[in-house]
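Hi everyone,

Forwarding the result from last night's run.
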Amino acid sequence: MFPFRQIRLLCVLALVGAGMPLVSPAADARAPLSNEASRLAACQDVVRSATLRLGDQVRRRLGRCIEGAVPCLFQGGNPTQCCLIASIDCEGDLRKIETELGRFRRKIERRTCENVPFEDVLSASGLGYEAIAGVCGSLQPPITLATLPDLTDCLAEAVQRERGRVLATLEIARGCAALECMQLDLAEEICTQETPTADGGAGR
């Protein structure tokens, strides 16, 4: 055996004999999370990625609907006929939003998060979603967070309304007028209701 290997082996044996750990602090800091913490982290990642995807799809699909009707507002006279045609063209995008809402619910409810106790999803020491109870209670109809499907319903509705509101009031300033011209139910949901806040209040 080479001398430096003998020295290394003797050092290891000495450490073991002294009862000292062989894992360095840096290596210990990189140790895997506990099973419980890993499940929580995985569930949070699923919720976040699903929420981002839903928001992007609402923005894309609803944006196409609004953009199809906005030119009607620039025409002289009554834009009703023009908006009716735009609303028909919009139906496919609205169906795709509904499909995305179903995918959103399934991704959260039937994957990683179903293995996490719901009380841990809500609690401040877990994922902390109890903090959005005020948002859920401010929706119409109100949603009480008693189960995981309640949470996904709340998140789906809140994301759809908030993303739609930003789109129809900020990105496209006459977006609400276009939605109303098409006589879509989303016009009332997005444009006439104030955006709920986490404390149960409302903001514009």
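Strands lie at 195-196, 202-203.

Cheers,
N.
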